[in-house]
């Protein structure tokens, strides 16, 4: 009997579990930032709106849906529903639809329902979906005689005035608190030209096309931009790699026996070091052993104009040869052709963080520095490949240990 009761109420309990809110992942500082932004935004919008509208006519200087807009603009500034086009066009087109329904439909219930539905349809068509727009359309119908008397003037005052003021404050406040706003959205045209083979890391895991296909199948509006969703997925993959490869850091795989040069090292000496030690890059250090640049074979080829192969050997010799004259128009020392600034990494950085740099960004050598930014080693593409191979091999051996065959003792 008990099992039958549990079987009956189990689906109900599962359905009710959907009412339980999810865990809030933002910290207290971010919550306080959003609250202070909404406080400032609504207060300034109300004060300025009262000055512009309250003294001129018997108009509401601040409408209630702005509270919902403030939640989006300050608590969810990266949401597609909170972008400038969404708040401006969404609120104004919804107000227009609400005024039309109020003037054309006499029954308030029907007019209210038609206004909200029409506002959603219009916002979808104009790609400016903004949830407070539904409340603005509804207020245009149920706002009373004062709003009805305004007609289409309601679209501009107070809806447009309130929206513009709140938007300006959101732009200023969010950027001052290190939240980029407006949140740049990747264009659809750019997505269409993307391929899954654009970067080496894109050849494994999910691709842009995979994400687009899944989002199309999901067929619901997401309160997160497509780019942010892709970024979160990639960061999740990186976190999974960190877990799989344990805590292997740059210090564990770097080469510590480093050949370096200084700013004033001659090009001829630098070239001989590259040839003698069979390496392709030399970190350039100052007197305190801090990295100020890096010189590679590519730097020699670029400045010697070796992209044209005619006279390759002669050009190279003339370029690296010391000039005996007092004045020279060609580079003479490493500091004149080195690549700067240099992308460095801390020794305690996980090696997974180097994957995008050494693959997608096209880097071949990354100097490793300590807490005082002094050079301690260098990681190359070969070092990273070897480390990932060893880690994967160790994982495979731990998962599938070799089978130990039993020892057969011959009968006496």
Quick structural gist:
This protein is mainly alpha-helical. It has helices at 2-16, 28-54, 65-75, 84-104, 108-126, 132-142, 145-150, 153-176, 188-192, 208-218, 226-244, 250-253, 267-277, 297-303, 312-320, 355-358, 381-399; strands at 261-262, 281-285, 291-296, 345-346, 365-369, 375-380.
How would you sum up this structure, described in words?
The protein has a three-stranded mixed beta sheet with strand order 1-2-3. The chain has 412 residues and is mainly α. Mean pLDDT is 82; it is low at 192-197. The chain is built from 17 helices and six strands. The chain has helices at residues 2-16, 28-54, 65-75, 84-104, 108-126, 132-142, 145-150, 153-176, 188-192, 208-218, 226-244, 250-253, 267-277, 297-303, 312-320, 355-358, 381-399, and strands at 261-262, 281-285, 291-296, 345-346, 365-369, 375-380. The protein has three domains: 28-176; 196-241, no CATH class; 251-397, CBS-domain, CATH 3.10.580. The radius of gyration is 32 Å and the shape is elongated.
